[in-house]
Each structure stands twice: as structure tokens, then as C-alpha cells.
Design goal:
This protein has about 90 residues and is an alpha+beta fold. Strands 2-1-3 form a 3-stranded antiparallel β-sheet. The chain has helices at about 30-50, 70-80, 85-90, and strands at about 1-10, 20-25, 55-65. It contains 3 helices and 3 strands, in the order E-E-H-E-H-H.
């Protein structure tokens, strides 16, 4: 098993019965995950504002999690092939 840091965002909207959540990326270090938290929060604010949702609350967390080594190996192979890369990984 390998330890990864999973970046998750929680978003609350007024009048909605539940908190929305979405997992984004996994990082090999806590520091790498913490650095991306601010970027993710800004991205969510921009995206929701463009959708017309001017009132909402968002919070991000880095959660420590164990992953199987074959998951990480498959991710690295796909990354090298350019498959499934998000904007953050491409540096956009």
C-alpha cells in the first residue's frame, strides 16, 4: 500500500437539502495537496459564479488515504500516454 493525499471539495448551496461533494485529484505528498487547495477553491468560486450561483459556501480538504501500488502504477502509465489528464496536471 502507498499513502496518497486526496483533494475533496464540499459545496453548500442555500435551499439545497444536501452538501455537494466532489473528489478531484490525489497527490503523493500532503504539501502538494495543500498547495492545490487554494487553486481548487478559486476554480470552484469562478465556475459557480459563472453558473449564476452567487451565494454558496465551499471548503476543501486533503484526506490521507491508502492506495494499492498497482493503482499508482496504472495512473503513471496513463499519465505518460496523456490519457485522463485534467487542467491542473497539464499546467493550464
Amino acid at each position: 500500500m502507498a499513502t496518497v493525499w486526496f483533494l475533496i471539495a464540499l459545496i453548500a448551496f442555500p435551499g439545497m437539502p444536501a452538501i455537494n461533494y466532489k473528489g478531484y485529484f490525489a497527490y503523493h505528498t500532503k504539501e502538494g495537496c495543500e498547495i492545490q487547495r487554494a487553486y481548487l477553491e478559486n476554480f470552484i468560486v469562478e465556475t459557480e459564479t459563472k453558473k449564476g450561483n452567487n451565494v454558496f459556501y465551499t471548503q476543501t480538504y486533503c484526506l490521507e488515504m491508502d492506495a494499492f501500488q498497482d493503482q499508482l502504477d496504472n495512473y503513471q502509465r496513463e499519465k505518460q500516454r496523456g490519457v485522463g489528464l485534467g487542467a491542473q496536471e497539464l499546467g493550464v
